[in-house]
Amino acid sequence: MSKPEEIKKKFVKTGGKFLTPAPKIAQKLKGIKAFVFDWDGVFNNGQKDEKGTSLFNEIDSMGTNLLRFAYYTNNQQLPLTAVISGERNSAAFYWSEREHFTDCYYKFPRKTDALEHFCSKHNIKPSEIAFVFDDVLDLSLAAVVGIRIFIARKANPLFNDYVAKNKLADYITGNESGNFSVREACELMIGLQGLYDKVITERMVFSPGYKKYIDLRNIIPTSFYTKQNDSVVELNPKS
Q1: What is the C-alpha separation between 174 and 221, in angstroms, rounded?
Q2: Lower CB density within 10 Å: C or N end of the chain?
Q3: In degrees to the nearest 10, what's the CA dihedral of 161, 83, 217, 66?
């Protein structure tokens, strides 16, 4: 079981930056109940096709699955999960449902509206959320949630400085958006809980514990929400 400072050294070597000490992030992880992700610029580099779709990769997908299994291992229950996006994106819809995320919010120009709905629906506090994000629209969430992981991008050094100066992130990824940075964020959160070897070993052998987790995960229905006339409404975009 690696200690937080040992984990820190590994991630610093790959270019990661800790704005909050690793032991403090590890401590905060004990109170986390939900993992929330932005989509554009987080699971991809933000490029879109003519239909407004930006894709994902299986490396990041596995990271989110292992993170949820780590949480289950610690708590014997599944964490809450959500994608909160400012845009409509068919790949995000497909992925959220395939991965059995709890909720998918789309076309939320003011993301705190989605956050308030998510917290109210599940009776949790913003401080119990870990959030992975990359850009300006996400800062209102980053200002209030418990753990903030900021996806790096060399193209916006002034924005990177702004996030750091205003203490809007706990960790900045060494990998840029679209280059498996979600996997980096997930591995960090697993590692800081001292669970990495156990999680990988159990997944490798498809242990009874992992089978129980995946069976529970796979019955979660994904709820879709959007904003209409200043109200949050449940609306499956595929219907």
Answers
A1: 33
A2: C
A3: -20
* Nearest 10 degrees: Cα torsion 42, 93, 31, 137: 50
Give 3-state DSSP helix, strand, coil % of the chain, rounded to 5: 45, 20, 40
> pLDDT digits over 126-176, tens only?
999 999 999 999 999 999 999 999 998 999 999 999 999 999 999 999 999
In this prediction, residues 58-76 reach a mean pLDDT of: 97
Specify the pLDDT at position 51: 76
What is the residue type of 25? I
Give the tokens for residue 49. 């096709």
pLDDT at 52: 73
HSE, side-chain direction, 13 A CA sphere, residue 198: 16
The superfamily CATH assigns to domain 4-218 is HAD superfamily/HAD-like (3.40.50.1000)
Tokens matching residue 178: 């679209």
Average pLDDT, the chain: 95
> CA 92, 97, 99, 102: dihedral to nearest 10 degrees?
100
Closest CA to 38 of 153, 190, 195, 120: 153
For residue 37, give the H/E element and its range. Answer: strand 34-37
pTM for the full predicted model: 0.96
Q: Which pLDDT band holds residue 177 (cuts at 50, 70, 90)? A: very high
**β partners of residue 234:** 225
Does residue 75 register a pLDDT over 70? yes
Q: Which two tokens stand for residue 149?
A: 């992981």
